[in-house]
Design goal:
622 residues; alpha+beta; D-Maltodextrin-Binding Protein, domain 2; Dipeptide-binding Protein, domain 3; 2 domains; five-stranded mixed beta sheet; 18 helices; 19% strand; peptide transmembrane transporter activity; signal
Length: 622
């Protein structure tokens, strides 16, 4: 079944933040000194003077064209600005932007200099200074300066950018230009995450959006003005919001950097956007594009077959990955009165029969999600530890007593469990919340029937309709009417941005080291901020207090305890009916492509293909 991503217009740009946090000079209490990399916890894997990352091929051919399809739910685009809220950004725009630092894919919470050639963290942790590589250049040939970095930061924190940036960078007090190539970020508080967040700020030229007469297009109105970034690719051509082609910048400044050797090997990267999943799959089988990352188990088993697969022209392979899975599920909007009561939300969770879905629809290829941090040591289990209790006990009067017990388990229908037993429990919870069955429907004390809508999009992956249909049949047994509605990408984005939905299917991107992004997802302030990632409307002073523990953790142990506490509270809040995850990346690709023999540990399949694969020499000139 489709792995969903949050469909925020700024989501492509958040990749910069993820790189800073996922991928590293360990900053010490004293003294401050300049280094090539910083680590949030521990030491960077790669020492100063390293030649390249272990998971790349430094001798990979640098030619050929990579053709890709929709990388997300996007079926069309209407702008080249990935940092604003309105509109649909073209895929691949992250190829044009860089940040002061970048991460590696075989360690977490590490940032190596990219635009910056050294990094200095103050002894008290209240500021970080970056020196910009004098060779760094924008696509127009201008040098990257401290003024450009400051302009980018202040623009992204302004109301002209998507509101999430003001959350992500909210603890950065200001950017100070020390000299033309040196910038210092000063923080409101000293946390181990802040230097990495500052290093992950996307940088663009202050000339982007400048008219010939010197006047400036407001940032939130920049649409098809080509970005002026420092990344390895340029926009070559585009057509009707459905195709876009990038070409590698022949003058790219950073090609010889250790963090770039063996990366971005294709001379051209093209995207073709298809209107529905069937058309996209058939186009791949017809040879219209090169790589299909398959999120649909049914397609992987039953539909990703044919003559080109049989002949070896198209290859299917599952690649292991160690990413945290993120949370995918049916998110309930607790701003709606219908979902205010936690007992109602738990009852809805009991009505999803994952074991039946896995057998009948997914070919037993999935595992159930039972945490916001599955597949990592950040997942809470059993009862709270002493470290967790130190965080939870001061909040005891604000928390459900269940938080202090065993971690909740997702409903199971394998014997001795059964759907009937789960629905009986659900009915009891609904009755406690004031919902009883009468006159042919489940009704509240006012006589209003329990009716809600699941909102889903029409493209970008397999429809959730078969899942929703099975879920709806189980809900009918409780007297609940669930309506399933599909709309196009642009409309669903607007509705989610304004929180105009009952329930929707979403996947929150995974993170290896939780931090400020959790505030955007679950913080009370974000619940009232249109366009935020807090889709469920979580608004809890207790959650806010735990989030502060997450972002202020000074050791890995403190981070684990705080994240366990957060996971425990959120799972007991039943804000989501969790879905499922795969332990592998399923990738089908043309036999004209090759990839390094050493795989990274933490990666997204699409980004891995784009950044480290190459065209075999015999096929490079296609």
């Amino acid at each position: 079944m489709t792995t969903r991503t949050t469909i925020r217009s700024f989501s492509a740009s958040c990749k910069f933040i993820a790189l800073a946090l996922a991928g590293s000079v360990t900053w010490l209490a004293s003294p401050a000194y300049a280094v090539h990399a910083i680590a949030q916890y521990g030491e960077p894997k790669y020492p100063a003077g390293f030649k390249h990352f272990d998971y790349v091929n430094p001798d990979a051919p640098r030619d050929g064209t990579l053709v890709l399809a929709n990388p997300s739910r996007l079926t069309s685009f209407d702008k080249f600005n990935p940092f604003t809220l309105r509109g649909n950004p073209a895929p691949g725009l992250s190829l044009m932007f860089e940040s002061l630092t970048t991460g590696s894919s075989d360690e977490v919470s590490t940032a190596y200099g990219l635009l910056a050639d050294d990094i200095s963290v103050a002894p008290d942790g209240m500021s970080t200074t970056f020196h910009i590589n004098p060779k760094a250049r924008f696509s127009n040939g201008d040098p990257v300066t401290a003024e450009d970095v400051k302009f980018s930061f202040e623009t992204l924190k302004s109301p002209l950018a998507a509101p999430q940036f003001s959350v992500y960078f909210g603890q950065i007090a200001r950017a100070v230009i020390v000299d033309p190539l040196t910038i210092r970020f000063e923080f409101k508080s000293a946390t181990r995450e802040m230097p990495l967040l500052a290093g992950g700020i996307p940088v663009f030229s202050r000339k982007w959006g400048m008219k010939p007469d010197g006047t400036r297009i407001p940032f939130d109105q920049i649409a098809f003005q080509k970005p002026i970034g420092s990344g390895p690719y340029l926009i070559d051509r585009f057509d009707n919001g459905r195709t876009i082609s990038y070409r590698r910048n022949p003058d790219y400044w950073g090609a010889a950097l250790p963090v770039r050797v063996g990366l971005f090997n294709f001379a051209h990267i093209d995207y073709k956007l298809y209107g529905d999943p069937t058309a996209r799959l058939e186009a791949f089988k017809a040879g219209e594009y090169d790589v299909l990352v398959e999120y649909v188990a049914r397609s992987w088993v039953r539909r990703d077959i044919g003559k080109r697969f049989d002949s070896g022209e198209l290859i299917k392979r599952e690649f292991p990955q160690h990413n945290g899975t993120g949370m995918q599920g049916f998110f309930m909007n607790t701003r709606r009165p219908l979902f205010k009561d936690v007992r109602v939300r738990q009852a809805l969770d009991l009505a999803l029969d994952f074991e039946w879905l896995n057998r009948q629809l997914f070919f037993n290829q999935y595992r159930r999600i039972d945490s916001f941090f599955v597949n990592t040591d950040l997942q809470a289990k059993a009862r709270p530890s002493e470290g967790e209790l130190a965080i939870l006990n001061p909040l005891k009067t604000q928390l459900d007593p269940a938080v202090f017990g065993e971690m909740p388990k997702q409903p199971d229908t394998d014997p001795p469990g059964s759907l009937r037993a789960n629905l009986i429990k659900a009915r009891e919870l609904l009755a406690e919340a004031g919902w009883t069955y009468r006159d042919g429907a489940l009704r509240n004390t006012k006589g209003e029937p329990f009716v809600f809508e699941i909102l889903d999009d029409t493209g970008g992956g397999a429809s959730m309709e078969p899942v929703a249909a099975a879920f709806g049949r189980n809900l009918q047994k409780l007297g609940i009417t669930m309506n399933f509605r599909t709309v196009d990408y642009a409309l669903i984005q607007k509705r989610l941005d304004s929180f105009d939905f009952d329930m929707t299917s979403v996947r929150m991107p995974d993170v290896q080291v939780p931090g400020t992004e959790q505030v955007s997802r679950f913080g009370s302030k974000s619940a009232d901020e249109q366009g935020s990632d807090n889709l469920s409307g979580v608004k809890s002073p207790a959650v806010d207090a735990i989030l502060q523990k997450v972002i202020s953790a000074q050791t890995r142990e403190q981070l684990v305890d705080a994240t366990h506490a957060l996971d425990r509270v959120l799972m007991n809040g039943y804000y989501v009916v969790p879905h499922w995850y795969s332990a592998t990346h399923r990738v089908a690709y043309r036999n004209t492509l090759a990839y390094p023999s050493s795989l990274p540990l933490y990666y997204g399949a699409e980004e891995w293909v784009i950044s480290t694969w190459w065209a075999k020499p015999a096929h490079a000139a296609k």
